[in-house]
Design brief:
This protein is an alpha+beta fold. The protein has three helices and nine strands; from the N terminus they run ααββββββαβββ. Strands 1, 2, 3, 4, 5, 6, 7, 8 and 9 form a nine-stranded antiparallel sheet that branches. It holds the Pfam family META.
Length: 145
Amino acid sequence: MKRILSVVTLSVLMSACASIEEESNSVTVKALQHHNWELTHIDGELISVPNKQQKPRLEIGEHFTANGMAGCNNFFGQAALNENGAFRIEKMGLTRKMCPEADMKIEQVMTEVLSSWSEITLTPKNMILKSPTHELTLKLRDWVN
C-alpha cells in the first residue's frame, strides 16, 4: 500500500512540475531560432505594401543571428535576450538604398524597435515586440512548412 501511495504521489508531483514549466511565459533562444516572421501590424494598424513588394520580415538563424528586410533596406545583426526576457538586435547593420517615403516610415519604426530592448510575446503564430514607443506584430512565415 505504501508503495502504491508513493508512486501516485510521485506522479502527481511530476505532472505539477511539468504544468508549471508549460505555463511559463519566458521566451527562449531555442523558441526564436530558425524562424522567419513577416511584419503585419505597427501599433495595431495593418501595414500595406504593393503586391509585388516583399513585406518587412525578421529571421532568426543559427547562433542567434538576425537578418531581414525592414521596409526597403536589408538589416543584419546579433539577436539578444536579456535577463528580463526582453529582445533586441545588437550592432544592427543596414543597407542604405533610396526608398519611397512610406517604406522609410515603416523601416524607421521597425529598426527603432528591433535595435532597442523590447518586451516580447511569442504565440504559436505571432511575435509581438513592444518598445516604449511602438508595437510590432509579426506573423510566423517559416520558409519550410
